[in-house]
Each structure stands twice: as C-alpha cells, then as structure tokens.
C-alpha cells in the first residue's frame, strides 16, 4: 500500500482530507500530517512517504521550498500542491519546481481522487519498470556467471589460437579484453572418515570450501587492483582458481607471484582449520593470454602430482624448464607415455615408444646425465614389470643393479642407448605374454614392510625411498596409488595415525610426545592430520 504525507497549516483542511477522501479504497495510507513546511520536511525524512500533498502558504517554509528540499533528498517523489488562490504565477512556479499537480482550494473529492489515482499509476509504472530492470540485471548476472563457467572450462581442455577467442562474449562477460592467466588447482583429500559419511555431508563440506575460497579472494584481491580471479568447481573434489591480470612489469612480477603464493597458502590454512579438509595444491606459471590457460592448468596438475608425494596443505609451484638450452631437452611427455605403456603392459606400444624416444635422444645432443636419468627410470620400470609377472622364474641375465651399474659406466649417450636397446628388447620379450591386468605389488609390499611399517617414526619421503630402491619417483608414486588405491602420503599418514591411536590407548603420553613418536615434528600439524582422518582431535579421541 502506498503512503502519503499531508502538509497544511489549516487544521480544517487536514481534517477534511482525512475524513472525506476514501484513501483505503484507492489503496493509500496516510502515514502522517504536518502543520508547516519545516515539520513536513522533518516528517518526510522520518517517514519516507511515497508522495506528498502540501499547501503553498505556510509559516517557516512554504510549499515550493518544501518541494525543493524534498527533491534534494529524492528527486523522484511526486508532490501535489494545494493553493488557496487562483494565481497563474503560482501555477507556473509549481511547474518549474517539479510539482506534479496543482489544485485550487477547495478541491472536490472527485478532483483529489483523480489526481491521487494518476500519481499512483505513475508510481506503480515506475516501480514495475524498476522491478523489470532489476530482474533483467539479475538474470544478466546469472547468464554472465554461467557463460564464464562454460568459457573457462572450455579453455582448460581445448587449445585455441588467439584469433579464435570469442571477443564479443569476453566483453559481455565483463572480462578484460587482454589478460595474463595463471591456474591454481586445489584437490580436496577425501579420506576414510569423509568417505563413510553421507554424500550430502560431503557436498556441504565442498560448498563450505567454495565459500571460504571466494570470501578470501574477495577480501585479499582488493589490495591488487590489476588482479582478479575466477573460481571453477571443476569436479567433485577439485577447484580451479584462475588469476587474471595485466602482465606485470619485470620488477613487479616476483612480488605479485609471492602475493599469489601467500594468498593460496592462507586459503589452504582456512580450509584445514574450518572444514577439517586436507588439500593438494599446485600453481601453474603465468601465461600471456586466455588461449594459453590450458598450459598453466596442466602445469598446476603436474604440481598437484608432486604434492601427492610430499607434504599436504602447501602450494607446490610448477618449476618452468623452458630456459634449458635448445637441443638439450628430452620430451617428458614421451617419457611419461612410455612409462604408462610399461605399467599397462602394452608391450608392442612400449617397444615403439622406446624406439621413438631413443631416436629423439640420439639426434638431440642430449647430455649424458639427462640420458642416464631417463634410461635408469625406464630400466627400473621394466625390471619391476618383469619381477611381478608370471615370467619371474624365467628371468635370466644380469639383475637390475648390474644393469644400472652398466648404464652408469657408459661413457657416451650413444653407448648407453645401444646397451638399453638390448636390455629393453629382452625385458619386453619376457613380459610380452604376461597376463594383462595383474597388479604389480611386489615393490609396493616392500615399500610398506621395509619403510612405512619400520620407519614410520622417521622423517622419510617417497623420493628417498625411490632413490634407495633405484626406481623412478613418479613411477613409484603411480604404482603405489594403483596397488593400494591411495597416494603414498595418504597411506603413510593413516598408518602413523593408527600407531598414534595405539599410543593414546596406553594413557602414558602427552599429545606432543605421541606426535614425535609417530614421526610428526609439529604437534599442531599432527592434530590437524589426526582430525582430518579420524574426525576427532587427539584429546577428543582419548575421551
């Protein structure tokens, strides 16, 4: 219901308006009355009526002055003037001061009804237009958000040339026409305690995590006017934060990168503190435009793989290697594809990939140390496949240590590649007929028995274990996860927590003592990991 303020110094007029005009029938409520312009202005500030009916000649402030004062506060408020004189000058002044209607006293009831209904129609039309505009803007925001989500998802999985980018869509979405891009991938660790919960509970945790990410970005990015961020809920356990900004000057680049790393670390700390979720995080490098976002995202995913083999809840930054001398680089994709083929026992494919890689290294002037590292990793992967196959008893020739020693004694990359050709041909022949799909668990069992169960109280890492076993670290990480179903760090932490629970049950130790006895040097971090796995803090679990 619309509201009206009546202003007149004549009580007879006020009482007549209140008594004889059918305000309720018109859908109007009298919100207040005033006896002069000053009181009317005070009542307007206090009550904020939808429109005002006022006399002209009043003490302290007349109707024209009141109208100007009201329009200084809100220029859209309609004002109706009542005048006791048939004065053309007043009528003209009323028009110049923005008065909507000018009525002579005493007005008839029908005249007042007509004017009031006309003003109400104007108010309602304006309100409908405002609501329509508000609805349009709200829908436009929803459309923009949906388009941004689809746009960035597409960029993470598809490579575009700069001229193929949709410039009109970029402008409509409110994104900068030209922007540097950088991807941060956050992978939530869904441990046993969360796996046992209802799916709805997990989605609530995921929703809360998204809110924390957005709130922190909104709070922190205000200090960096040239930097913004978009958040993608890329999968059930993965968020991708895309930083957008003008390419920084050389002297600002390092400072801006440190700001992003610090902000990312703070986000992880808040997720762990408030949601009790551990996170694996990887940050790609800064790229020159939207068309290179896919490269930064793939780098961030690679950094996440490194995080799986090391400490949780910290940001791993992808180390760019593009400054290596031309002709000295081995394609890591080629090495990775070969390891995948060996692991999946695709022997024909593995042999072809090795021949291609060997040709690349022989013709690319690859340094001897690089060649040794690549060949040692491949030899270890093949030997592991041999030892875990049904052909194990038929294996003949030198063992892995002898093969690695032979590689190490090679005086040139060519000599090493020739020796590898023979070893690979023999090892692939032994494995070619191995049963497809059989798990390679001998090495994993050795890691569990000799390192995790015996050395859980020591500060050890998968990288150290791989070095001791003469195995490529990435390959061992993939093998461990494939056999056990969990990354090494997850499995290792769970084993430590089981040992911690045994110590808690004795009632002999303080939390910090238990932390040290199971290999955690930081008791706070121990408590956080304990709660993320069990759902309770160490002190709560004891009770």
Automatic annotation (TrEMBL):
Swiss-Prot/TrEMBL keywords: DNA-binding, Phosphoprotein, Transcription, Transcription regulation
Keyword Repeat: no
Every HTH araC/xylS-type domain range: 446-543
Pfam family, one: Response_reg
Cited InterPro entries: CheY-like_superfamily (IPR011006), Homeodomain-like_sf (IPR009057), HTH_AraC (IPR018060), HTH_AraC-typ_CS (IPR018062), Sig_transdc_resp-reg_receiver (IPR001789), Tscrpt_reg_AraC-type_HTH (IPR020449)
One GO BP annotation of this record: phosphorelay signal transduction system
Single Gene Ontology MF annotation: DNA-binding transcription factor activity
Record domain Response regulatory: where: 3-120
SUPFAM superfamilies noted in UniProt: CheY-like, Homeodomain-like
PROSITE patterns: HTH_ARAC_FAMILY_1, HTH_ARAC_FAMILY_2, RESPONSE_REGULATORY
4-aspartylphosphate modifications at: 55
Protein name (database record): Response regulator
């Amino acid at each position: 219901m619309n509201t009206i303020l009546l202003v007149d110094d004549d009580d007879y007029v006020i009482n007549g308006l209140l008594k004889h005009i059918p305000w309720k029938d018109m859908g109007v409520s009298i919100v207040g009355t005033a006896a002069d312009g000053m009181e009317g202005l005070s009542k307007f500030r206090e009550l904020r009526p939808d429109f005002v009916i006022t006399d002209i000649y009043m003490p302290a402030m007349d109707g024209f002055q009141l109208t100007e004062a009201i329009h200084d506060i809100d220029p859209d408020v309609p004002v109706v003037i009542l005048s006791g004189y048939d004065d053309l000058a007043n009528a003209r002044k009323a028009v110049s001061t923005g008065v909507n209607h000018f009525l002579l006293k005493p007005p008839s009831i029908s005249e007042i009804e007509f004017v009031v209904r006309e003003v109400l129609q104007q108010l309602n039309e304006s309100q409908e237009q405002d609501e329509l505009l508000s609805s349009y803007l709200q829908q436009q925001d929803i459309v923009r958000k949906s388009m941004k989500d689809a746009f960035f998802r597409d960029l993470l999985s598809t490579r575009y040339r700069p001229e193929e980018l949709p410039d009109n869509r970029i402008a409509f979405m409110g994104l900068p026409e030209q922007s540097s891009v950088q991807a941060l991938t956050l992978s939530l660790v869904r441990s046993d305690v969360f796996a046992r919960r209802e799916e709805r509970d997990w989605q609530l945790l995921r929703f809360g995590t998204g809110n924390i990410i957005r709130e922190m970005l909104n709070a922190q990015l205000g200090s960096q006017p040239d930097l913004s961020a978009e958040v993608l809920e890329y999968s059930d356990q993965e968020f991708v934060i895309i930083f957008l900004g003008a390419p920084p000057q050389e002297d600002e680049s390092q400072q801006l990168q440190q700001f992003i790393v610090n902000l990312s670390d703070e986000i992880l700390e808040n997720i762990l503190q408030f949601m009790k979720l551990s996170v694996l995080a990887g940050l790609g490098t800064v790229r020159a435009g939207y068309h290179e976002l896919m490269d930064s995202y793939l780098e961030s995913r690679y950094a996440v793989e490194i995080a799986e083999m090391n400490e949780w809840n910290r940001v791993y930054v992808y180390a760019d290697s593009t400054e290596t001398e031309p002709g000295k680089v081995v394609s890591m994709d080629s090495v990775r594809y070969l390891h995948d083929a060996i692991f999946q026992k695709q022997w024909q494919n593995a042999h072809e990939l090795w021949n291609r890689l060997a040709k690349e290294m022989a013709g690319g002037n690859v340094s001897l140390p690089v060649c040794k590292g690549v060949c040692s990793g491949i030899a270890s992967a093949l030997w592991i496949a041999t030892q875990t196959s049904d052909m194990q008893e038929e294996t003949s020739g030198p063992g892995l240590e002898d093969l690695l020693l032979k590689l190490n004694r090679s005086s040139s990359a060519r000599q090493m590649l020739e020796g590898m050709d023979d070893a690979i041909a023999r090892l692939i022949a032994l494995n070619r007929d191995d049963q497809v799909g059989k798990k390679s668990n001998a090495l994993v069992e050795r890691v569990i028995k000799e390192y995790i169960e015996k050395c859980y109280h020591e500060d050890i890492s998968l990288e150290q274990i791989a070095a001791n076993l003469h195995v490529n670290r990435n390959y061992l990480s993939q093998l461990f996860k494939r056999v056990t179903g969990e990354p090494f760090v997850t499995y290792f932490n769970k084993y430590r927590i089981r040992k911690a629970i045994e110590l808690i049950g004795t009632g002999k130790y303080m939390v910090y003592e238990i932390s040290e006895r199971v290999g955690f040097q930081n008791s706070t971090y121990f408590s956080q990991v304990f709660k993320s796995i069990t759902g309770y803090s160490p002190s709560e679990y004891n009770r």
